[in-house]
Amino acid sequence: MGDARATAKVRVNGAPAEATLFCTEPPGAGGGREGGPEFRWRCHGGTAAERVLSLDADVLGVEARGKEVVVKAFVAVDAARLVPCAAGVGKGGERKRCRRDYVFEMAAGEDAAADWGDRTRACLDSLGRPKRLFILVNPFGGKKCAKKIYQTEIKPLFQAAETQYHGHAREVASSLDLAQYDGIVCVSGDGVLIEVVNGILQRIDWEEAIKIPIGVLPAGTGNGMAKSLLHSASETYSVPNAVFAIIRGHRQSLDVCTILQGTKKFFSVLHMTWGLVADIDIESEKYRWMGSARFDFYALVRIMNLRKYYGSIRFVPAPGYEAYEDAVKQVENCTVECQEQDVKSVCSYQGPSVEFQGSEWRSLDDPFVSVWINNVPWAAESIMEAPGAKFSDGYMDAIIVRDCPKADLLALLMKMSDGSHVRCFRLSPGHLVENPKRGGIIDVDGEVIARGEGTCGKNQIQGVMCYGPPIQMTVHRALATVYSPK
């Protein structure tokens, strides 16, 4: 890369200044500011403090045009930060950002501008940012505006391929030549992300394939994963912030939950629900035109006509939660065996190898209003149901409601706050308390995996599980990787 520091006389947006490009950590940097390569400059003839642009945290790219170096930035609302000032913050401590260009006119002319452009691009390359991304666009998610969002806010940055039908992303991820790409990006709600994870884990080379980072650009109804990732970094929830997180290339490990029923298997990264929350999520589909407001509206409808379901729950508590509920002996452990093909064992991912026969299982009995098992803090952009959930701690957060006055239940849904932690969870769903001929819905990451008798609508995925027999959910810690703002 040559010298790690370059200084030049410039005009910054028309004002004379002296600028320095640091391609490594500058001497004396700190003060809570993100370190690494950066631009620093101070305008002449004024009392303004030194200004700073971090190449990692602020800069999208750079272009040399004649004797000008144009730095394309995505900065906090206070523009270039004062040293050692923190980034601009919005409501709730979230950082707000805006798109801005900084034009450095080099006093030494075009050769100096070309040199600074080359140096800056080399600095950006050293950050390990992804350059080859395969993008999946779901044109049917949310208010069906993913194409518009892609065209207006994302297309200038990425080369893409659009999904054509439900389940297409899963097929693509199961056969894509991943060696050609640095990452996969989903322009959708959470549905395409789930398809991609399931497709990757169906591959024979899943152990290598699952290492590819997955980016999430919110363009659906729920957008729980994008909201969780941005909130964890105190970034404002927005499409541009999600795009910038992918451009920067920072990564976050993510737990993957395996859901088993006999030989049937499904993988989850968000949540599993049964009862009230599943009914709200799936039955509100007919109000999709309302966007995320459909959840609030239909929650009120369902609470006013509250349902309860018979069933049983068994779980292995996380350390510190062993005293919850009654102890019970565990029955057989759910496993799926590899199939033999041509005398060679050819297996996709079979789930975590953890055994729970010797664990202290606990029990809860019916009736139940709602069961909600969570892997990330946010279920949707406006629903933070599990604030203590971590992306890669190896545990699930459980919210279980057996009985509750309607007014209190409505207040609970409006202000989600806490849950109990489990390592392994088993659900045996039963029929509606008021109607023994009607069952419920089991919803995993917005996909129906099991429907009871009497529920309306068609199954959304092939290989759907049966409603009634036990369904077991276990966690593989930090199995997948997603792009994260930090």
UniProtKB/TrEMBL annotation:
Any one annotated GO CC term: membrane
The keyword Kinase is assigned to this record: yes
A Pfam short name: DAGK_cat
Residue ranges that the Swiss-Prot or TrEMBL entry lists as coiled coil: none
Lineage: superkingdom: Eukaryota
Annotated ranges, domain DAGKc: 128-263
Keywords of this entry: ATP-binding, Kinase, Nucleotide-binding, Transferase
Any one biological process term the GO annotation gives: sphingosine biosynthetic process
MF (Gene Ontology): ATP binding; lipid kinase activity
Record flagged with keyword Ribosomal protein: no
InterPro entries recorded: ATP-NAD_kinase_N, Diacylglycerol_kinase_cat_dom, Lipid_Phosphate_FormReg, NAD/diacylglycerol_kinase_sf, YegS/DAGK_C
Protein name stated in the entry: DAGKc domain-containing protein
